Amino acid sequence: MPDSTIPTPYVSEDRSVPPEWIDGNSHMNVAFYLRAFDLAFDECYDRIGLTADHRDQTGGSTFAAEMHLTYQRELMQGDPLRITSQLIACDAKRMHWLQCMYHGATGYLAATAEWLLLYVDLRTHKVATMPNPLRRRLAAIQSAHGQLPAPPEVGRRIDLANRSPSG
Description:
Elements: E1 10-16, H1 30-48, H2 52-58, E2 60-71, E3 80-90, E4 94-103, E5 109-121, E6 126-127, H3 132-145
Antiparallel strand pairs: 1-3, 2-5, 3-4, 4-5, 5-6
């Protein structure tokens, strides 16, 4: 049975699009979608226990190995953001996450970020096995998040045939 104290999914909703994230097209610049997703991960990691203290005590952290962003709809200056983080899968050395960015007031999906993250020993900068307490925590999160429907963006690839239903 999943741990009822685990958010399903993790949610970050404490920011909005600042003026410095707006580009010449008068909407949020593509680079800042990644920044917003990364900031939401910081909150998620704090709740999981992947903190600066963890890094200092174990010498372990995560590195991004691969990611895929999709842009669904524009965001404008001042728009509130709601970002969800769902653990799709994990093993002793890797985590597969999907984040969804929504307009915080109207609820439309603005973007997604799919990540493959590696656990790394910072002394050697090589992939390493996560400590057992972290592995157990991630297994509980995966069990809880496994109850959620799989978002359609999981595993998506770039392809000219990947068009929206409207064509």
